[in-house]
Structure formats: C-alpha cells, structure tokens
Amino acid sequence: MPVYPATPERIAEAGRFLAQAGIVAFPTETVYGLGADATNDLAVAAVFSAKKRPVFNPLIVHVPSLALAERYAQFDARACKLAAAFWPGPFTMVLPRLPGSFISDLATAGLDTVALRVPAHAVAHALMMAARKPIAAPSANRSGHISPTSAQHVEADLGDVLHMILDGGPTEVGLESTIVDATGSHVRLLRPGAVTAEEIEAVIGEPIGRSSDGHNGRPSSPGQLLSHYAPRARLRLNASTREAGDAILAFGPGPLALEPGAVNLSPSGNLLEAAANLFSSLRRLDATGVATIAVMPIPETGLGVAITDRLRRAAAPR
Ligand code: TXA
Ligand code: MG
After folding, report:
1. Pair 55, 306: CB distance under 8 Å
2. Neighbours of 21 (CB within 10 A)
3. DSSP secondary structure letters along 214-234
4. How far away, in angstroms, is 141 Cα from ligand 2 center?
5. How many Å from the N-terminal Cα to the C-terminal Cα in the chain?
6. How far is CA 195 from the centre of its chain?
C-alpha cells in the first residue's frame, strides 16, 4: 500500500526520494499532484509514463515562494502584483522562462515559457523544502480520468505504479488552479479556477482575455491552445537512410545511429530515456542550423505514443 500519512518523517523521506529522481503524489489545496524534480528530465518522463499521457503537455512547476519562482521566470511589475495577491494559492502564471534556469525541457514541453504556482498547503510546502527542488506536477490521475481530491482517489488510479502517496486528507478547493498566460501585453485566462477573472482584473486594473476569446469562440484547454515549440528545421520521420545535409535524431542501435553527429534519444532503445531527451535533443540539432532532421523510427507503445505524437506535430508543414 503506497499511501502514507504525511508525517514529518514521511515528508522528509519523500523529499529525498524526489531529489533522487523518484516520483511522489502529494496534496495541494486544489487537487493531488504527481510530483517530480522539475530540473530532471528523466524524473519528469517518469511522471508522463505513470499517467500514461498520450501527449506531452507542459507541466506546472511548484515552488515555495515568489523569491524562488523568480529563479525560473521573468517577473514584470504586473506578474509581481499577481503573485503578491494570489500566492500562495490556487493560481498559476505562465511566464517567460529565464534562460539557463535548469527547468527540464520536458516539463515545459520545449516552450520558452514556464507555468509556476506557489500552492497553499502545508504538506506541499514541507515537501518542496525537503526536496530542495522545484516540483513539476500534473494532477495525480491517469490521463483522461478526473483529478484526485483525496489520497484514495490517487491510489485507485495510480496505486499500482507509485511508491509513495502522501496523504494530507481531502483537498480544500477540489478544482484545479486558475491558469493565466502573463507572457504577452494582455493577461489571458487559460483555465478558470477558484481565483476568478474578476479578482484578477481587480488586481491588475484592466480586463483580461477569456480562454474562449479569439479561437472562434470555442473554449480550449491550455494544452491545445499553446503554440508548441516547433523546430526551424524540417523533420523527416521514420528515416532509414541519411540524405545530404541531414542531421540524425537516432533511437536505439542501428546503422543511422552510427552516423557522425547523430544525437541518440536512447542508445539502448529505452522509451523513458528517449522522452527525457526529446526536447533538448531537438533543440540541440536545430541549433546547428541544419535544413532537415532525419528521425529514426520509434515504436508507438507506452511513452513512444507521446514521443511520436510530438514528433509528428513538429514535422507538420508550417
Ligand atoms: O491545481 C493544479 O493546477 C494542479 C495541482 C497539482 O497543482 N495541477 C494541474 O496540472 O492541474 P495539469 O498538468 O493537470 O494541468 C496543467 C495545465 C495543462 O493544461 C497545461 O497545458 C498548462 O497547465 N500549462 C503548463 N505549462 C504551460 C505553459 N508554459 N503554457 C501554457 N499552458 C501551460
Ligand atoms: Mg490534469
């Protein structure tokens, strides 16, 4: 049984486990999160694997304070006002990511932005202090299931794949955090939550965009709404040969993996390792200025589904 009462000893143990790339489910005031060290690509890949997410959505990075949040993103005066008003609390801000901030490229899905939140929950806070790491955490449910508001919900959904679920009782808010995009000239609401649009408008003194604005009036979830990181280079998927000027994104052994300059997502063909390396490898090859990246075949099982989904989007004509 992986459910443990969130005693100080268990929280300390969970913090050590997180710092060593383990994944831990923990309570926040909104819903339970499935946490990983946000600076560790492999740990973040394990979160996607446990949730069986078919796509790599960017994750919310949880931090104990505004001061620590400022290590990872650019806060302008408006963002500072919002943080002062709603943190700690059920409020997430998408902000420009600070270059060289060590946040996992997988956690941000390769984007130049990062979603940050300071949760208002004693257990979440103690866990972040114990781990001494920012914690990337989606809701602790299997993909497509509803968000868990108790440790028992987490256990029912993910108990077979988790070592540790910290039980902090039922969550107070019971609804995922409000998410705003504060990267542009106008703040936009990406996901409604306990902090309302009107409260946000009162703090910044101007109207904010609603998620249904601008997209043919259709409400959209943030994961679909974002302009995903797209490499400048063209991608050729399922490549078995190298053509002139190709860079090689390899997976597993095989002749193409031996080509000079090939970047291998996982020489042993491990999908968890490949997921962890995906966005940073794409960036690395793209930065060389090549016209085309030839991508070796990747099996569409387990995390391979999300990897190939992402590669197909990156390969789509623009
Ligand atoms: O209450 C909550 O927010 C819970 C607790 C655990 O903190 N977390 C949560 O995470 O609901 P998740 O992964 O289920 O939802 C996070 C949403 C996703 O829809 C994702 O697309 C969006 O946040 N998101 C994350 N980073 C983003 C970014 N850089 N730009 C736009 N949207 C982003
Ligand atoms: Mg969720």
Report:
1. yes
2. 16
3. TTTT----HHHHS-----SSE
4. 7
5. 49
6. 21
Residue 172 tokens, joined: 């107070």
DSSP assignments along 71-126, one per residue: TTB---HHHHHHHHHH-SSSEEEEEEBPTT----TTTTTT-SEEEEE----HHHHH
The pLDDT > 70 percentage for the chain reads 93
Please name the helix (run of DSSP H) or strand (run of DSSP E) that holds residue 139, with its range, or none. Answer: none
- Tens digit of pLDDT for each residue in 33-71? 999 999 999 999 999 999 998 788 999 999 999 999 999
In angstroms, rounded to a whole number, what is the distance separating the alpha carbons of residues 120 and 193?
Answer: 14
Reported as a single tens digit per residue, the pLDDT across 156-192 is: 999 999 999 999 999 999 899 999 999 999 999 999 8
> pTM (2 decimals)?
0.90
* Ligand 1 pocket residue status of 126, Cβ below 6 Å: no
- Ligand 1 pocket residue status of 195, Cβ below 6 Å: no
Residue 105 CB less than 6 A away from ligand 1:
no
